[in-house]
Amino acid sequence: MTHLPLWFIPLFPLIGTILLGTIAVVSSGAKKGPSEGLVGTLAVLFPALSFAVVAILACSMPEAGFRETLCNWIDIPLFRADIGFLFDGLSRIMLLFVTGIGSLIAMYSIGYMHGDRGFARFFAYINLFLFSMVVLVLADSLLLTFLGWEGVGLCSYLLIGFWNQDIKNCKAANKAFIVNRVGDIGFLLGMLTLVTIGGSSLLNYDGLAAFINMVIGAGEVVELVLPLSLAGLLFFIGCTGKSAQIPLLTWLPDAMAGPTPVSALIHAATMVTSGVYLLARLSMMFCLLEHVLLIIVFVGMFTALWAAIAGLLQNDIKKVLAYSTISQLGYMFMAAGVCAFDASIFHVFTHAFFKAALFLGAGAVIHSLAGEQDMRRMGGLINKTPVTACVMIFAFLAIVGFPGFAGFWSKDLILERIFVSGPILGPIVYVVGLATAVITAVYMGRLIIMTFFGKYRGDKETEEHIHEAPAVMLFPMVILAFGAIFSGYLWADSIGLTFFRDSMASVVGQAQALYLAANPAAHVNPVIFAALGTLAALGGMYIAWKVFSRARIIGVKGASTVPEGSAASWTFLWDYIHCAFIAVVNILAWFCDVVVEKVLQAIQWTIAAIVEILGDGASILQVRKVRLQLSFSVAGVALLVMLVIFSGGLV
Amino acid sequence: MELQPLYIQILALVIFAIGIIVAVARRNLFFVLMGVELALNAVNLSFVGFAKTLPAEASVTGQIVPLFSIAVAAAEACVGFAMVIMIFRNKESVDADSYSDMKG
Amino acid sequence: MLALVYFIILAVIAVGAALCVLLSRHPLYGALSLVVSMVSLAGIYGLVGSPFLGVVQIMVYAGAIMMLVTFVIMVLNGAKDKRTPMFDGVSFFIIPAVLVLAAMVGFALLRSTMTFDSATVAGSVKVTSETLFNMASTGPGYFLLFEVIGVLLLSAMVAAIFLAKRHLGSVISENTEDKH
User: Fold this and answer.
1) What is the pLDDT of residues A234-243, one digit of tens each?
2) How far is it, in rounded angstroms, from Cα A509 to Cα A490?
3) Cβ of A623 and B104 within 8 Å?
4) CB atoms closer than 10 angstroms to residue A323
5) Among B25, B100, B104, whose Cβ lies nearest the Cβ of A626?
6) Most buried residue, A52, A89, A146, A213, by CB count within 10 Å?
7) Which residue is closest to A628 within chain B, CA to CA?
8) Closest to A179 in 3D by CA, of A232, A250, A234
9) How much is the pTM?
10) Cβ neighbours, 10 Å, residue A382
């Protein structure tokens, strides 16, 4: 074997899960938990080992990538599936930041979860999550990806409801799992549609690409567009569930009930980007489906706008970041919708760094304020927690797209690709995207100003205990901040650094070329877009400074952070729509329960009554006297013989 | 008119019917057994009647099977009457209906 | 022709005796009518060409079996019972049933063709015993049945003795042994 085997990568988190799970179960009876040093070391060791393997493989990867088939999974005449791994440009980049950021957040959690009784259980779940995510990204077939997909959904449920003594956390975990499940139906049906179109070899990514090439070469694209569109739409429904787009986005804000490292890892950097990853993997199929791409663009656009406005209305620091995640995911889907898959994956990459940094910083703020999450009771923290403030400000500059930081390169690339995608639609979506960027800057600026600047609005005794986070928490945050600053330079188009694009070209290049051949893009000067993006960012920051730095904000201790009034209507819009659907289903359920059950009981009673009557009738033929019984027998024989003879049986 | 095999079969049928009627219609226990004997006789007659319609060696079958039938009837009569004696001790009655406990 | 005349006479006697069995009051009259019926059937056997069987019928059936019947009737004092009615409701149900059954079978019989075969062999003792005791492996195999019948008769005898005996070792059986 010339390279390390690919199955090393998921192996280490799996071992970590088993070990940590055993430690958690064994120590569950004891009053005090297991040694935090041992558990913490193990918890960081395995993701780090996985990252090391990925790095080694990444350096030596040829352009075509590594492929490895482990064993056969399903082998029936209808259907054949193997377990195999695929390590190409796309999975390399995803694995690098998944395992890397995973290790950093594991390290951060050692500090954040210090003193919690469920310390070992937490890290067992984190390792299980990393295992599932690695399987999702490394898989070479849709079936194995779905295994990882479900696995990350499960871990999301386990980790959101980690503090399971509080019923609100359990409800949030249920909501996340169930809404994800609705999306998973789309994924499953999409797989089935593909199998119906071309057999089970289509579930393998290489097989799918070969099939599409064959279809294009044979000129049969027009006939297959409809069934493939159906498959594409179903997969997109799965993506809306996992990546929290309209209409299945209601779970992500509620998922903030889990510990902050969980929000950073799962609901910012890795799990929610699975949907975008899936679209990039199926790029060959999607590039042919114009209508589905149109739907994707519009869904992304409306989601981005809606979530940005919702972020402006929140009082809880983590909820703002949650809506910000939804909004940025909308950008990624907009990019995918114009077949700019490499741009959307690039935004995934940079977003992972700055969003994780923001969440970890928020976690440090909450930790320093001993659990306070309401922004109306924060303020002036920049003096007390300077490192945290620095990290968050750099990440803020990245997310709004300040020139030179990571978000500048990735977001403007997306907006530019959107503008050139079509003569009429392009500019319209571009304008909406630009407006969303302004609002992004406004609400993020609001967050930074309310948290770090101004006067402290909380109470005295909390103020005395404000302290900087311990080193084990600061170190990952600082590294992520560096990532937020510098990761954008992997693809700085205007300067000419296109390393990222080249590494993705082998995976999505063909699909994008096909799309561009069908819809040629206009040539524009990228500097204009960069300038417009910078203006949007600066404009938003100015508005935020103007409105919020001098606003009088009053925070009441113990008040609910839930928005009220019209803000509540906007925030919970999709929850209300879901409730309407659930009401319809409830009516159906009531109907089945009462009416159908009564009908079924009546049918059962009727059948039983018929049988009983027949039985009573037959029992008349049993009599007390032997002679009478014998004569009945003779009479019966006579009857039978008559029947046989007169139906022509004998002679 | 010659003797036809059909006549023998008709006779056997009539005697068989009368035998069954005697066995079921009479209430006296002895008549039940006598009716069974009558029916068995009718069957023997039927066998013998058919034997004559077969050629050569096969016609001897019509004698041998009734021979066995007679032997079995003898054994059955023997055991049957032993049972009559036994149950007569129980109820001191030869009425067949006094032994009717089939239902309930 | 003559055969037909003899047959009709014997048939009338047989049926008449059977009807007497049906309608007689006293069991002993019934038994005697049964004997008459059997003797006439023996005559028919002889007429049709099975003289061996006819004689066996008289010896075994009319002789041994009916003697047993008569004996039991007299031992149990069968005429004692004057209260048992001869016929009742059941009887009037069975008669039509049997008549219908007989009609069906008769219908089937009438529809079939039967003729006496010219090459039939008269059933003499010689021929019968040759067939019965034929022990060749390709033979008809009645010999085995013959032996089995012997065992059957033996077992019937044992069963009858056992059933009809009063309790084993009872006072009455001991008394009878003492008295001799």
Assistant:
1) 999 999 999 9
2) 17
3) no
4) 24
5) B100
6) A89
7) B24
8) A250
9) 0.70
10) 17
- Is the Cβ of A577 closer than 8 Å to some Cβ of chain C? no
What are the chain B neighbours of A634 within 8 Å (beta carbons)? 20, 24
Distance from CA of B3 to the nearest CA of C (A): 5
Which residue type does A276 have? V
Helices A499-518 + A341-368 axis angle, to 10: 130
Of A624, A631, A634, the CB nearest to B100: A624
Q: CB-based burial of residue A156 (10 Å sphere; 0-12 exposed, 13-18 middle, 19+ buried)? A: buried
Please answer whether residues A491 and A498 qualify as being in contact, where contact means their C-beta atoms are separated by less than 8 angstroms: yes
Determine contact: A218 vs chain B, CB below 8 A. Answer: no
- How far is C119 from C174, CA to CA, in rounded Å? 62
Backbone angles phi, psi at A141, to 5 degrees: -140, 155
Residues 6+ apart with CB under 8 A from A427: A419
| Residue whose entry in the numeric block shows the structure tokens 């910083």 | A361
pLDDT in tens, A113-155: 888 888 899 999 999 999 999 999 999 999 999 999 999 999 9
A68-122 tens-digit pLDDT: 888 888 888 888 888 999 998 899 999 998 999 999 999 999 989 888 888 899 9
The encoded tokens of residue A347 equal: 């935004």
The string of DSSP letters for A258-320 reads S-HHHHHIIIIISGGGHHHHHHHHTHHHHTT-HHHHHHHHHHHHHHHHHHHHHHHT--BHHHH
* Position A390, amino acid: C
Range with lowest mean pLDDT among A96-105, A319-328, B89-98: B89-98
Q: In chain C, which residues have their Cβ closer than 8 Å to the Cβ of A641? A: 101, 104-105
Specify burial of residue A363 (Cβ count, 10 A radius: 0-12, 13-18, 19+).
buried
Give me C72's structure tokens: 């039991």
The whole-angstrom distance between A613's CA and the closest CA on chain C is 26
Distance in Å, alpha carbon of C136 to nearest chain A alpha carbon: 38
Q: In 10 A of CB B6, how many CB atoms?
A: 16
Which position has the token pair 């990204």?
Answer: A137
The better pLDDT of the pair B93, A300 is held by A300
Can you tell me which residue has the tokens 């304020």?
Answer: A369
Residue type, A30: A
Residue B62's CB: how many other CB atoms inside 10 A? Answer: 25
Indicate the residue of C93, C101, C108 with minimum beta-carbon distance to A651. C108
Give me the sign of the Cα torsion angle C83, C88, C94, C99: positive
Contact A110, A474 (CB under 8 A): no
Query: Position C161: which residue type?
Result: I
* CA-CA-CA-CA dihedral for A10, A11, A16, A19, to nearest 10: 140
User: A38 CB near a chain C CB, below 8 Å?
Assistant: no
Burial of A481 (0-12, 13-18, 19+ CB in 10 A): buried
The tens digit of pLDDT for each residue in C31-89 reads: 999 999 999 999 999 998 888 999 999 999 999 999 999 998 888 876 666 666 777 77
Other beta carbons within 10 angstroms of residue C47's beta carbon come to 18
Q: Which two tokens stand for residue A402?
A: 């300040």
Q: What does the alpha-carbon distance between residue A193 and residue A185 come to, in Å, rounded to a whole number?
A: 12
User: Which phi and psi angles does A361 have, rounded to 5°?
Assistant: -65, -45
Amino acid at A314: Q
Residue A585 near chain B (CB below 8 Å)? no
Nearest to A89 by CA among A508, A511, A512, A504: A504
> Which ipTM was obtained for this model?
0.89
The pair of three-digit structure tokens given for residue A209, joined into one six-digit string: 């690409």
At residue A369, the 3 state secondary structure works out as: coil
Closest to A627 (Cα-Cα) out of B26, B3, C57: B26
**DSSP H helices in A199-257:** 205-218, 221-242, 251-254
The partner residues of B95 in beta bridges, in order of sequence, read: B28
Helices (H), B52-91: 61-91
